[in-house]
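User: two proteins, same treatment. go.

Assistant:
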Amino acid sequence: MNLASNTAVIIVLFVTFLWGSWFQAVKHTGNYPIAGFISWMYTFSVIIVGISIVFLQDSMIPNGFIEEVSQNIPLSVFLLACGVVFAAAMQMHLAVVGRIGLILSTSVSATCCILCGTLVSSFFGGIPEGASFASIFLASMLLVLATVICQYAGVRRDREIKKCEEEVKGSRGYDIALLIFINAVLMSSYPLATSVGIRSPLNPEGMSSLTCMGLLAAGAFVGAQIFMVIEVRRKKQKEAFRRPDKGYGKILLMAFIAACCHFGGNVLHAAAVPVISAAIATAMGNSYHVWSYIWGIFYGEFKGASLKTYLLLGGGVLLFIMGVLILSFNIT
């Protein structure tokens, strides 16, 4: 399947919406353990990617999934390992968010993910001909600044409607340091996997994008199940895991929706990587953090905020658009 560069950009922008939306599902799971929810999400992710491989194999994996994996066992094992690390990192990230709050955690995680993801994908995946690392890095900095400004708008909103205490009480140096490690190191497993694992003009030794996602999904499934068993036992959440207050039907529905947004988005993102490069796709994709605030407006979380707060939020979104435009200009 060959994509035009402008189509690939549209796909990545749509992916940012998917990635920035699936976290909302966690708000509807009641007392059900986060680790259990994530394990179900990655279970559905494996199924979604597996179905995609079955139906799209002829057009996207000319040599077949099994054949492609068997021809490059070392890379396949590496991608599986990246999936395991990524799933564990996601679980740890959500646990820290629960302790220190969304506003503080997003400002830290977005900065680490955007900068480290851009550096990793640029180094391992290469820069496309005609593109400039300086302009890609500038766009990444604009995306970081957009996130920081949106974060500040969120802080102002909480001050104005008297909700800042719940975000600040749990702020601890240890959790912030852990969050930096998770997002700068462990979360980099995804851009590293797409940079070295997906075949492109800059990486002819890689695999097809769908094969890469299949291995990542399988690894994430294994990592999520291991982490879930450990966490549920450690936190003594067996009863909540067996009998969620929201009912298992709703938990499974939310997990399925999250899987469609998360790994469904991953599949689309991977399809765009060979066209616009891992570096540009990663930088552009990491702007998904802005959607947290757009959803915040939708849920009425900014109701009662001042005009200045809304203008700050609008300025953050404008910087996001500028960053994406700069990245688009680097695509030849």
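Protein 2:
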Amino acid sequence: MAKMRLAVGSVDVVIREENVGSASNRICYPGISSCVTVTGVGPSGMVGCHITFATEPDLVSQMFQAMRTGGGTSCVHFYVIGKIADFKRSRTYSSFNTRKKMGQAIKDVICETAVVRFCDSEAYGKDIHIMVQKNLMNADFSWVATAGNVVAGDLYPAFAGAAISPNDFVAR
């Protein structure tokens, strides 16, 4: 099991596998191939985490607790984006392997009144980066292929991605 790492909150942040972070403007989740990302959007910013199919349940709980204490209780919307179908098939642990269980865990631990929406990124390609930009009380999402678009360390990338349509999100 990897130890959870907190991506220091700032204007822009990069959140890698099994990491948690907060940002007031933008979040980048690099290398989404069989993972899911969870992003909470509230009045003063965003909180997020990057979960792999092998992330242990205790670590998911720790990540959600960190999101809660990092501002997640004020988040109105939560978005789960990633290779959801692959994630569900590959998930080693049954406590977080369906959309219903994912949504309930977010509500149970982080914010019980939040609306949770899901977007399966399979149509965007096998290995992508997901970017989130705060937009008032909501967020805009985009993606870009990892090939030729390197995310170096914790530096927010300079490249732009293709927009993810709000119609690609489903509330469950």
